[in-house]
TrEMBL record, chain A:
Keyword tags: Membrane, Transmembrane, Transmembrane helix
Protein name: DUF112 domain-containing protein
Superkingdom to which the source organism belongs: Bacteria
Entry keyword Transmembrane: yes
InterPro entries attached to this UniProt entry: DUF112_TM
Domain DUF112 residue range list: 17-437
Keyword Membrane carried by entry: yes
UniProtKB/TrEMBL annotation, chain B:
Keywords: Signal
Name this protein carries in UniProt: Tripartite tricarboxylate transporter family receptor
Species this protein is from: Methylobacterium isbiliense
Lineage, top ranks: Bacteria, Pseudomonadati, Pseudomonadota, Alphaproteobacteria, Hyphomicrobiales
Top-rank taxon, per record: Bacteria
Family in the record: Belongs to the UPF0065 (bug) family.
TrEMBL record, chain C:
Domain DUF1468, chain residue ranges per copy: 7-146
Database matches in Pfam families: TctB
Transmembrane segments: 35-56, 77-94, 100-117, 124-145
Taxonomic lineage: Bacteria, Pseudomonadati, Pseudomonadota, Alphaproteobacteria, Hyphomicrobiales
InterPro entries listed in its UniProt record: DUF1468
Domain of life the protein comes from: Bacteria
Protein name in UniProt: DUF1468 domain-containing protein
Length: 504, 332, 152
């Protein structure tokens, strides 16, 4: 108890709190800007935190990352430009809500459920960190392979009225992920002798191209002075929160749990959590046909999930010093620099520091509500800007964002190429979202497949030899076969299963 | 795809023109070198934000900023095992406003035919850091010493698998060179490529591989957590953080020593005056309290060599690595 | 533009074959049977399969190779589209030598005028946005935007 008291004393000081407030504003700005990711925001903080005490330094990083992941939702909803990759999964859905005049409802849900998801992730971090980290350490390449395949399966459930076209998009994404040196043999692949292509195709410029540039091109070919400006109907962000919470608590809880678990697995972070949760939400929804038309259900589940993943990612980071995602990778470095070496000893020797981290997490997620409210209020004024002025400005932001990812004009080239590709794909009814998922997961699938084959000396049975791998493998195969099984089941003439709660 | 290729080609040409336009613009003249630095300096890092190289660059950058009185912006240029970033450093104008933090990979990539760049394309300024390789196994592994492990490797070739970086990466060469120096076949421990040391260590603890020959700072948290133990370190002296881990030489008599190094470099043709100013500033930083504290806190090893000494070190590293890469069959 | 599914399918098939053939030449990990070639070949197979399925589906509902979208009949729309793409290309080529500020101004100004804005509004907005972006990204977030001829 004494340690908890000490922890409060460590955190509730004006310097810690003011650092957290500044970090909030910074995180919101970076998160809302496409091309600037939460990871970059944290990396920019590193030299600053070097001159800070440990607790304010951690306060700055936790607050900044939580705000950034939420803030990515704002441009996704208003302009169909995901501010961070974690918002890409439901950018289309949120934008559809805005076009239906429900920007306030959608963004309000993003804010409320982001904060709740963050608090849930924190709760798990507090209660179950050592246990969950232990479980995460049991994951070898066999388990990750199945996990990545399950993730890819999500691509088929997302979007696509025509499943073949969804698959086409997914395979295009996977193909893009094979470009460059980053493959198990370490040889240049599809690089045509170009140095920049050796580095592979970064998925953030590709994402900006697919979503934002293709949207700008669509606006350009249509006569945008005639296109209507989306109307904002409601005034209050908060008024639907109670109703949404009561109506969608199972989705929210499921998003929280999935997000925390995926976040806790090293190498998978908020981005993947959001995709998986969106797909799960659609798969088990009673009204899957509403998805993609501006339906809040999937947004709630995935926005909960990506913020819960942030807390989850700290689980292996604090317990074993293994980063759960790219953000905690930076944080671990800072922890070492501050002499707060992560590991089990941190829980034993300096419990007040751990408790202080927990308190910071809770505070950061509570701060999200007022700061997020202000950010949404300010940002939605964007919709009042005439579109013939807005679209060129968006294009410049896209260019700067695509440049900033690797500080190279090659990012702008990638952005342009994928903008055109995305435009052509969507004109022909091929959704772009699965392609993004393919780019994100491609190297994970490949690396874990090939390394597993090397370890097992080419024996495919090894993918089922370890207990967790076997479980995940069987689950994956069941998910794939579920349409077939359902089909056969119905053919046998028995009573039809209720649509939503069927297999896997 | 064909369309995209031709568009890419067109853009490439346009970019080349742009680069030429820059190269053609008035570069560094002695008069400008005297007043250097007059504007912000860019420090290019060939690795991603958040990694050890990035952290080292950021601390050097912030200390250099104090020494030189101009902002030093750390810019990450990531991809292709460092090819992209090192190429960007070499191609920049040698005016002292673009520096880079080169890493050991630049002594390896050209052997694989991945880049034409060698130390001849850079102006070495100061070596700032060296992290020797260690031999890490699971804490509950049945080997008390490296000798036990070696005996098992020799009697069961192919049983042990190692991981911790990509195919032909520095830690892959570390174990291959070690085995070779001890009279074992480097191929008797197949390499499992991984995306860095952290996933390799994760796989070690999860039971996917048995050896991770990465550096001590990379394995530190898991060693301290009691999950991983280090059997030996491939350096001349033990690491100050884990002084009980013996050196490879003390343990087996093999003189093999290898490590990942990082040093500040500039493009080829940097005026001598600027190089001298930079060397003075970096030497002061290296000997200062802030740098030592930071690197010590992270467990990073420090090693200093300026100018010509740095080039000699670089050449030796290059030759050693080339020899191992030929043995493993990675060098072209 | 709506291409018939059979046309898309045919293009995808051709891409898949090209990828497969080029991937076959990629080396394995030394001493292993697997390497850089496995995954692209699997992806090529998947892509080819989808291409085949689309081709068959498209041939069943053949209504001509291309069904133009409404905007494609307007030369002005084509003009705006190509101008936008050219402006991005201009940025890619000119940002390094000329610097972010002038190039961003030109891109913004041209695009706003092209989309029907008044020239003085365009000039004002372009100057303001270019300055704000340069200041916030270049100076505060330390994104190394090209300085070129003109900087703050």
């Amino acid at each position: 108890m004494n340690a908890i008291g000490q922890a409060f004393e460590l955190v509730l000081r004006w310097d810690v709190l003011s650092v957290m407030v500044l970090a909030s504003a910074f995180g919101l700005f970076v998160g809302a800007t496409p091309g600037l990711t939460a990871t970059m925001a944290i990396a920019l903080l590193v030299p600053i935190t070097f001159f800070m005490e440990p607790i304010p330094a951690i306060g700055a990083m936790v607050t900044c990352s939580a705000m950034a992941i939420f803030a990515g939702d704002i441009p996704a909803a208003l302009l169909r430009i995901p501010g961070t990759p974690a918002s890409a999964a439901y950018a289309d859905e949120a934008y559809a809500m805005t076009r239906n005049g429900q920007a306030e409802l959608g963004l309000g849900a993003n804010l409320f459920f982001s904060a709740l998801g963050g608090l849930f992730g924190t709760a798990i971090l507090i209660v179950a960190a050592p246990w969950l980290a232990e479980a995460a350490l049991k994951f070898s390449s066999f388990e990750y392979f199945w996990l990545a395949l399950l993730g890819l399966t999500c691509g088929v459930f997302i979007g696509a009225t025509n499943p073949v076209k969804g698959l086409v998009s997914l395979f295009i994404g996977l193909l893009v992920s094979t470009v460059g040196l980053n493959n198990p043999a370490g040889v240049p692949r599809f690089t045509f002798g170009d140095v920049d292509l050796m580095g592979g195709i970064e998925f953030i410029p590709a994402m900006i191209g697919f979503f934002a540039v293709s949207e700008v091109l669509r606006a350009v070919v249509a006569d945008i002075r005639l296109a209507g400006v989306p109307q904002l109907i409601r005034g209050s962000l908060f008024q639907d929160w109670g109703r949404l919470f009561v109506q969608y608590w199972p989705q929210q809880l499921r998003g929280n749990i999935v997000g925390t678990i995926i976040g806790a697995l090293p190498g998978a972070g908020a981005d993947i959590a959001a995709w998986v949760s969106y797909a799960v939400s659609k798969r088990f929804s009673k009204t899957p046909e509403k998805f993609g038309t501006g339906h809040v259900e999937g947004i709630i589940e995935s926005t909960s999930s990506n913020n819960a993943a942030l807390g989850g990612a700290w689980v292996p980071a604090l317990v074993f010093g293994i980063p759960g995602d790219s953000i905690t990778a930076v944080v671990i470095g800072v922890l070492y620099m501050k002499g707060m070496n992560p590991g089990p000893t941190m829980f034993l020797n300096n419990p007040q520091n751990i408790y202080a981290v927990f308190i910071i997490f809770i505070l950061a997620n509570l701060l999200m509500i007022p700061f997020g409210w202000a950010a949404i209020k300010g940002a939605k004024e964007i919709l009042r800007v005439p579109r013939h002025i807005l679209m060129p400005c968006i294009l410049i932001f896209c260019i700067v964002g695509a440049f900033a990812v690797n500080n190279s004009v090659f990012g702008v080239v990638v952005m342009l190429a994928f903008g055109v590709l995305g435009f052509v794909m969507e004109e022909n009814g091929i959704p772009v979202a699965p392609a993004i998922l393919g780019i994100v997961l491609g190297s994970m699938v490949e690396e874990n497949f090939v390394t597993s084959m090397i370890k097992a000396n080419g024996d495919l049975a090894a993918f089922f030899e370890r207990p967790i791998a076997a479980g995940l493998g069987i689950l994956t195969i069941l998910v794939w076969l579920s349409p077939l099984i359902l089909f056969l089941w119905r053919r046998r003439g028995s009573a039809p299963l209720p649509g939503g709660s069927s297999a896997p | 795809m064909v369309l995209r290729r031709s568009v890419l080609g067109l853009l490439r040409a346009a970019t080349c023109l742009a680069v030429l336009a820059i190269a053609g613009s008035p570069g560094s003249s002695p008069a400008q070198a005297a007043g250097w630095p007059e504007r912000p300096i860019t420090l290019l890092v060939p690795w991603a934000a958040g990694g050890g190289t990035d952290a080292t660059a950021r601390i050097i950058g912030s200390l250099l900023e104090k020494e030189l009185g101009q902002p030093v912006n750390v810019v990450n240029r990531v991809g292709g095992n460092g090819v992209v970033g090192h190429t960007a450093i070499a191609r920049a104008a040698p005016d002292g406003y673009t520096l880079g933090l080169a890493t050991v990979e630049i002594a390896m990539l050209h052997w694989q035919g991945l880049t034409p760049l060698t130390h001849k394309d850079f102006t070495p300024i100061a070596l700032m850091n060296l992290d020797p390789a260690g031999v890490q196994v699971r804490q509950d592994a049945p080997y008390a010493t490296l000798k036990d492990l070696l005996a098992d490797i020799k009697s069961n070739p192919g049983k042990h698998k190692a991981s911790g970086t990509g195919q032909g990466g520095i830690w892959h060469l570390a174990i291959a060179g070690m085995l070779d120096s001890l009279g074992a076949d480097p191929a008797s421990v197949p390499w499992v490529p991984s995306n860095g040391a952290a996933p390799g260590l994760q796989d070690l603890v999860a039971g996917g591989v048995t050896i991770v020959p990465c550096s001590i700072p990379e394995a530190r948290s898991l060693i301290e957590a009691g999950r991983v133990k280090s059997l030996a370190i491939m350096d001349e002296a033990p690491n100050p953080i884990f002084p009980t881990v013996p050196t490879l030489k003390a343990e087996t008599g093999s003189p093999w020593a290898i490590g990942a190094w990082r040093g500040v470099v500039a493009p080829k043709g940097l005026p001598d005056e600027i190089a001298a100013k930079l060397t003075a500033a970096l030497e002061k930083i290296y000997n200062g309290k802030d740098y030592k504290e930071f690197m010590g806190g992270r467990g990073f090893g420090i090693r200093y060599a300026a100018g010509g000494d740095f080039r000699t070190f670089w050449e030796k590293s290059d030759a050693d690595l080339g020899a191992v890469m030929k043995k493993v069959g990675i060098a072209k | 533009m709506r291409l018939n599914d059979a046309v898309i399918g045919g293009l995808l098939l051709a891409l898949a074959v090209a990828v497969f053939l080029s991937a076959r030449t990629l080396p394995d990990v030394p001493g292993q049977r697997y390497g850089a070639a496995v995954f692209p070949m699997l992806v090529a197979c998947g892509l080819g399969g989808c291409g085949l399925a689309l081709t068959l589906a498209g041939l069943r509902h053949w209504e001509g190779a291309v069904t133009p979208a409404p905007w494609m009949r307007s030369p002005a729309a084509w003009g705006r589209l190509s101008a936008t793409l050219l402006l991005i290309l201009f940025y890619i080529a000119a940002a390094e030598p000329l610097g972010f500020l002038p190039v961003a101004f030109v891109v913004l100004f041209a695009l706003i005028v092209l989309l029907g804005g008044r020239w003085w509004v365009a000039a004002l907005v372009a100057a303001l946005v270019a300055l704000v972006v340069a200041k916030s990204f270049g100076s505060l977030l330390l994104v190394p935007l090209p300085r070129g001829l003109l900087w703050l």
